[in-house]
């Protein structure tokens, strides 16, 4: 089985590829070949027990999209995207990467021939929704994004459904919750603090909490996100029907509940590293974000999320700290 | 005031332009100039009391889109589209006209400069919805189109909202009901019979009814459709907020109610010209179409539809038969 991953150098891409390297039977058939794409040529995993090739370049160029599809991979994970903040700051770059890039990849599948109909897993986002939002968002709630990133993801979803309906590919779009705890350095995404207040204290460092503890949001661990991708790749799509874009399950938690989960895992001294410093701009943004979902279809289809925010913290400790909380 | 109409040679385009010619004060400020675009250069109305210029060509070519915007019209009606059946039969033509054409026009507005922010009225369609549908579709129901045409319209809507949010233009998307009674020759659109069974008998000709009389659908007259466009052009958009695509009001009627309206206007002998001949393929398609809407936002914003199907029949008799029913 030949697998393509676009955006392979990103956080989720790297974790997905590591999981494939660890479990080559993950998709039922053994993975014999992996094509990794990213805007800069990604590094090859050291542990892979199958052929790995890399493609570097911008999917906004049709020739790059065609190149990734040259040998007709059986399974495509399309993760490549310019992130929310950057797509908002640079209108043209966001549309090129997120709309043209996705369309070029879909068109490359179409050009690859009649008897080719790969599974195509598209990582979408809860950014397709925009305020005002109900307390729990139902599966049939409409997409009215309030960012260019959310707009571009919603367009990708519509194309994915139509290309699926046309028999060009077998698509599944998964709307990922905010990924938490995001490993690595603090980033400047407005959602970053949700991860910072867990990750930094666990590493013995101070973190700033810019909003009230009553703020509620929708989370999944990186491990769950990879699990969603794997499940979307192996799902029997006959049971999905024509509506191919799914709200993923997750954990709805307030900041207070995040903090209590951190305390349960790592103790009071770690929690004391959270410094409260309100940021009115972030508070205003957060007011427009999804707080909770009723992801009934995804649950029926067998997608599974973390069971609690405490589990999300424990996943981070296992995956990024080797299971040890140093400063407990 | 300078007005641009794309798709000016289409049925709605021609009726809109005639209305502008009849009432040049329609938009508050006098229309002094009109740019008409269509794929083939449209004919100029004879009665116009203002400068009219025409642009022929395909908006899928960025140069044609730029040409229509060259003199920065104050008000844009974007009606140009490849229709549903054709977009389904010719994948590439539909995407070129309906997706690339719309995006090129939006991009031409963006390229036209910083201090330019025209009102941009986009004719969308209830084809953005796909079965299974609730009996009455609420304003916040999601878009899961089951045609490439519906997909392309839904993408256009998302772009319209984002370009509006970005301050590039001041967009309003209106989701038109099925237009009935459509004048002219019977066409091969699957929805065509809803018009045929009224128009043909009124002209003394037989028409085929391919479905059961219990079939319910959602209608507006051509005159109402033009009214929606005019209202969208003059509406105070400050009260609309970021959700710029609106389900238009209409008349929900069964085929039986259509026939009784025809009888009330034109009598039994006209109704006898309807021949019942079931078409399983059309019956299957009709099963997936919208039956009724609760278009609360559009009504609050002042959009007004026909009051009954009988009024829709009377509008047709007034506008296409000079008010006279010959064979009563």
Describe this structure in a few short sentences.
Chain A is α/β, with parallel strands linked by helices.
Based on the model shown, name its key terms.
Rossmann fold, alpha/beta, homodimer, seven-stranded parallel beta sheet, 12 strands, about 325 residues, three-stranded mixed beta sheet, 12 helices
What does this structure look like?
Two copies of one chain form a homodimer. The first copy, chain A, has 328 residues and is α/β, with parallel strands linked by helices. The first copy, chain A, has a domain at 2-177 and 222-247: NAD(P)-binding Rossmann-like Domain (Rossmann fold). In chain A, 39% of the residues lie in helices and 17% in strands. Chain A has twelve helices and twelve strands. Chain A has helices at 11-22, 62-68, 84-89, 91-111, 148-165, 192-202, 222-234, 255-266, 268-271, 280-286, 296-300, 309-321, and strands spanning 2-6, 33-38, 51-56, 75-78, 119-125, 170-176, 178-179, 207-209, 216-220, 245-247, 251-254, 274-276. In chain A, the strands form three sheets. Chain A has a seven-stranded parallel beta sheet with strand order 3-2-1-4-5-6-10, sandwiched between helices. Chain A has a three-stranded mixed beta sheet with strand order 7-9-11. Chain A is globular and about 60 Å long. The N and C termini of chain A lie far apart (45 Å).
């Amino acid at each position: 089985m030949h697998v393509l991953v676009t955006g392979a150098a990103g956080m989720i891409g790297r974790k997905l590829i590591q999981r494939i390297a660890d479990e080559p039977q993950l998709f039922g058939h053994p993975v014999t070949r992996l094509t990794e794409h990213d805007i800069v040529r990604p590094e090859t995993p050291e542990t892979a027990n199958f052929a790995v090739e890399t493609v570097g370049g911008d999917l906004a160029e049709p020739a790059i999209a065609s190149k990734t599809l040259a040998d007709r991979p059986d399974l495509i994970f399309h993760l490549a995207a310019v992130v929310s903040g950057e797509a908002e700051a640079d209108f043209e770059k966001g549309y090129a990467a997120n709309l043209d890039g996705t369309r070029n990849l879909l068109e490359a599948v179409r050009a690859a021939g009649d008897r080719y109909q790969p599974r195509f897993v598209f990582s979408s986002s809860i950014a397709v929704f925009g305020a005002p939002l109900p307390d729990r968002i139902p599966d049939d709630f409409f997409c009215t994004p309030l960012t260019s990133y959310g707009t571009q993801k919603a367009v990708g979803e519509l194309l994915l459904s139509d290309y699926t309906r046309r028999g060009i590919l077998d698509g599944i779009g998964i709307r990922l919750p905010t990924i938490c705890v995001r490993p690595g350095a603090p980033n400047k995404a407005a959602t970053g603090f949700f991860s910072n207040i867990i990750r930094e204290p666990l590493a013995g460092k101070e973190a700033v909490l810019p909003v009230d503890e009553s703020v509620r949001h929708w989370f999944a661990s990186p491990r769950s996100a990879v699990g969603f991708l794997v499940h979307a790749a192996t799902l029997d799509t006959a049971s999905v029907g024509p509506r191919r874009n799914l709200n993923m399950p997750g954990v709805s938690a307030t900041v207070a509940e995040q903090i209590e989960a951190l305390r349960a895992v790592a103790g009071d001294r770690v929690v004391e590293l959270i410094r409260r410093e309100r940021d009115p701009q972030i508070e205003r943004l957060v007011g427009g974000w999804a707080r909770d979902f009723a992801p009934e279809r995804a649950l029926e289809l067998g997608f599974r999320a973390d069971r609690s925010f405490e589990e999300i913290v424990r996943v981070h400790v296992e995956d990024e700290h080797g299971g040890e909380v140093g400063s407990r």
